[in-house]
Amino acid sequence: MKKQRVTILGSTGSIGKSTLDVIARHSEQFEVYALSANTNVNEMAAQVAQFKPQRVVMQDAASAQQLDAILKRNGHLASVESAPNAIEDIASCSEVDTVMAAIVGAAGLSPSLAAARAGKRLLLANKEALVVGGELFMQAVKNGGGMLLPIDSEHSAIFQSLPDDATSWQRRVEKSFSPLRAARFARATRPRYVM
Questions:
Q1: In this structure, what CATH number is given to the domain that contains residue 139?
Q2: I need a surface site. Which of 19, 33, 136, 155 has the fewest CB within 10 A?
Q3: d(C-alpha 7, C-alpha 53), whole Å
C-alpha cells in the first residue's frame, strides 16, 4: 500500500504535534512531506530529525537560516524555506496527498485555500478559515475536487453528528447563514482517526 504524503501547516503547535503523533503511530500508512512553523526553531529541528520531511517552511528568514544551520550541522537534508509563497507551495504541490491546516487565525486562510484549490485532502483545524472566507473557501474546495474534513473540536462535533447521506440535510444546512453550511463535505467517508 502506498503511503499518504502529508504536509502539516503549523507543526510545532498542539494540533501539529498531535498530528505527528498519529503519523508516528501509523508510519506504515503516512509519511511527512513538509512541515511549517512560525519561529520555533528548536522544536522544528527535533521534528525534522524524527520525521525527515523533504521541505520545511519557517515564518521568517532569520528562523529559516538558524534552522538550516542546525540541520546541516546534524546532516539533515531537508530544504528550508521562508519565501512569501513557500507555505502555499507546500500546501498545494503535487507530491502531497493530505494537508493538516493547523495555523491559527486568518493567517491560515491563504495556505488552506491553496490546498483546497489543488484538490488536496484538507484536514481543517482552523475554523477561522471558514469564518473569514466561508463562501470563497467552499467554492475552492468544490472547484479543486478535494475533500475537506473538520478537525477543530466544535465543527468536528457537528460534522460527526450529521447523517452519512448529505441529501437529506444539505438543503437545510445551505439555507443557514452559518459558515458551517460548509458541511457539504460530510459526503466524505468518516475516517477512523484524524487522518
A1: 3.40.50.720
A2: 136
A3: 9
Give percent above pLDDT 90 in the chain: 58
The sign of the CA dihedral 159, 163, 167, 171 is: negative
Q: How far is CA 180 from CA 37, 84, 124, 132, 170, in A?
A: 27, 30, 12, 12, 11
Determine phi and psi for 43, rounding to 5 degrees. -65, -40
Looking at the 3D structure of the chain, how many domains does it have?
1
The phi and psi torsions of 79 (rounded to 5 degrees) equal -80, 125
Burial zone of 67 (CB within 10 Å; 0-12 exposed, 13-18 middle, 19+ buried)? buried
Instruction: Tell me the mean pLDDT in the region 10-35.
Output: 95
- C-alpha cell at position 143: 472547484
Structure-block grid coordinates of residue 123: 484536514
31: helix, coil or strand? strand
Tell me whether strands 55-58 and 30-37 are parallel, antiparallel or unpaired.
parallel
Record the pTM. Answer: 0.79
Residue span of the structural domain in which 80 resides: 4-152
C-beta atoms surrounding 49 within 10 Å: 14
Q: Is the dihedral of CA 186, 191, 111, 19 positive or negative?
A: positive
What pLDDT sits at residue 130? 73
Q: Which residues contact 33 (CB under 8 A, 6 or more apart)?
A: 5, 6, 7, 53, 54, 55, 90, 93, 95, 96
In a domain, 173, yes or no: no
The answer to whether residue 193 is domain-embedded is no
